[in-house]
Amino acid sequence: MLDDFLVRAALAGLGVMIAAAPLGCFVVWRRMAYFGDAVSHAAILGVALSFGFQISIFAGVLVMAVGMALLLNLLSSRGHSYDAALGVLAHSALAAGLVAVSLLGTVRIDLMAFLFGDILAVDRGELGVIWAGGAVVLGLILSRWNALLTATLNPDLAHASGINPKRADLVITLALAITIAVALKVVGALLISALLIIPAATARVAARTPEAMAIIAAALGAVSVLGGLWVSFQLDTPTGPTIVCVAAGLFALGNIAQAVRGAAR
Fold first, then answer.
1. DSSP state letters, 170-216
2. Which of 30, 94, 168, 247 is least crowded, fewest Cβ atoms below 10 Å from its Cβ?
3. Sequence spans of domains, the chain
4. Per-residue model confidence as pLDDT tens digits over 245-254
């Protein structure tokens, strides 16, 4: 069954979504969209370092993503404007990554595949890494769900309940870095944040509880992946961007439905 590249692509997309759906809810609740962009842009520099030092791409991207997240937290704690730090580091990391790739010389890299994803080229080994990474992220979030939710929605209540918000921040940061590392092959560094944010933002319209939002986001993410693969196959369009376009279409439909319901009341 895994000899069919479309089956591997579908499984890869679903493996990413088991991590991206619940994590995306926290990204939306915490208003971390630009934080996710900055960390994902560091993925290209991680790819260049992976080829330069001949290590696993997953390991290189994970190290750079974690490093970028920690650097952002350090700069913001030192009094730098958070928006300014995000802007400087996001664009600097992307530019440095592109320069580093050009300096590799004899190593041939399909840069477009890392920028926008190449889900149709996922092999069995990469599929295993994607599902393992997704399972780790899902386990992290589920094991700390109540603590993460309390620290996100009410930091004062978290303190009173003996929950350390900084530890919650660290869990979210680590989960975000792992998700970016496993999603790079699926949608690329420039579209990872969209896959995190759009299904969660769509689910927010219909959900009544945080748990329901995470479940609905996962379902919408799965529909986006499978629908994007089908549309891409039919129209011969780039698969990663097509998946994001399907997710955006679901977001538009969700908001239109909400507006119609509101007008009918």
1. HHHHHHHHHHHHHHHHHH-TTTHHHHHHHHHHHHHHH-SSHHHHHHH
2. 30
3. 5-196
4. 999 999 999 8
